[in-house]
Amino acid sequence: MSLPINKLTSSGYQGEIIHPTDELYTASTQTWGEQGKLSPKLALRPKSTLDVSKAIVWLTTNNIEFAVRSGGCGDSQSNGVIVDMAHLTKYNPTTSSVHIGPGQTWHKAYTALADKPVTVLGGRVGYVGVGGFILGGGLSYLANLYGIAADSLIDAEVVLADGSIVRAKDDEDLLFALKGAGHAFGVVTELILKAHPKPSTVYGGVLLFPITSFTALSEKMCTITDKKVNAMMGVARMPPDMNPAVLVVAMKALKWAWDLGPIMDWTRSMSFEESIKTQEMYIHPPPAGALFQQHNLARLANRTPKRPRFYGASTLRTILPRRISSPSTQTKHGKEDKRSAWPHSSPTLHIINCIEAMEKVAEKGTVLPRYPNYNLAGVPAEEYYGDNLERLRGIKKRLDKGGVFKTGIKI
Questions:
Q1: Mean pLDDT of 285-292
Q2: Judging by DSSP bridges, how do beta strands 81-84 and 66-69 pair with one another?
Q3: How big is the CA angle at 322 (ends 319 and 326), to the nearest 5 degrees?
Q4: pTM of the prediction?
Q5: CA dihedral 96, 100, 105, 111 (to 10 degrees)
Q6: Fewer CB under 10 Å: which end of the chain, C or N?
Q7: Omega within 30 of 0 (cis) for the link into 287
Q8: Which helix (H) or strand (E) holds 235?
């Protein structure tokens, strides 16, 4: 079926319209992961919020399936149209907040703040897009100090399903929904994030272990209590023999890992901004050809691609040494106060999207709720949003009656 593009151009839309034969098509549609790759008929690159509004009205009026893309690391696939936010790159940092467009990457955000004593809660690799990262929760290296990235969301400009442009701060329900479930409620065209103090230097980097160290590393990571420590672990195939190995990326207090005898150690003292770049030596930007899946250890090792250029962790999982909590998600009594769609402040240990080997280590804790940005096919929304799902469904019904914003997590 051909798309009625003339109706879009006649509406006053000023952005780019990109066809499969155009040079920009791949850059506007490629994704980080391999699973479920689709073939969009068209990509749009709006140049303004008004362009986004006109695009959404055109898409919904003509019943065209679509997805929204920020950096391509998340759930931005469709057989219809991709709305690529690459041109929405507004950036205005201050010492208390940052106004930022969803088309920015964290590279640019961190660079702009490099000479300031503050930073934002952003991605742990710089090529990740701002929009999808924030709306799906957002785990940063400072999560244990300040909460998830979505906790720092002060306001957002949003285009709703009917094309109307609203401010999230004027709708308490919408602001709540954007903090972890934002992909399902509209297209965000600007975010205002709280700025936080950053460490002047950090000690961190990447450690490589033999695959036989996986369980021991899991056990050690589950015992960390220092809230300034953040670590994540994945399985990769590393040169020269391309055998599976365990890749650990950590910041601060690495004795627990050194005691297990890494076979390679790329850790050192560096600036906060350098720590982000260090990880990118081993985890490729889109398209990385990676797999976000859950498997037991043997199957995970077998599914990791054997590619000479592939140095990154193909299945990456995060362990946080303590619960993620912050003033914005906790009352003075320590109970969750329902300001965030993703209920991430339980009193039990959180292990995000663990594979089976890690789950066995954490029998006394909980592996729920799952992390929205690592959504897996077939996992019900209840496992991400728990008791908040009923409220989210009510908001969805009010703001998106036709269900035009479809995401990997079915709300």
A1: 46
A2: parallel
A3: 115
A4: 0.83
A5: -40
A6: N
A7: yes
A8: strand 230-238
According to the model, what pLDDT value does residue 215 have? Answer: 75
DSSP bridge pairs for 249: 206, 232
Instruction: DSSP for 298-365, please give it.
Output: HHHHHHS---TT--S-SEEEEE-SS----TTTB-TTS-B-S-SSS----SS-BEET--HHHHHHTTTS
Q: How distant is the alpha carbon of residue 38 from its chain centre?
A: 20
Q: Is 239 helix (H, G, I), strand (E, B) or coil?
A: coil
**326 vs 146: CA distance, rounded Å:** 6
Task: Check pLDDT > 80 for residue 27.
Answer: yes
Question: What's the pLDDT tens digit per position in 203-243?
Answer: 888 888 888 887 788 777 767 777 777 777 777 666 666 66
Give the chain's largest Cα–Cα span: 66
Contact 145, 206 (CB under 8 A): no
Is the per-residue pLDDT at 399 higher than 90? yes
Query: How many other CB atoms are found less than 10 A from the CB of residue 356?
Result: 12
Note the pLDDT of residue 37.
67
Rounded Cα–Cα distance for residues 389 and 77 (Å): 24
| C-alpha distances in Å from residue 208, one per residue of 74, 164, 213, 383 | 26, 50, 10, 32
How high is the pLDDT of residue 277?
78
Work out the burial of residue 390: count CB atoms within 10 Å of its CB; fewer than 13 is exposed, 13-18 middle, 19 or more buried: exposed
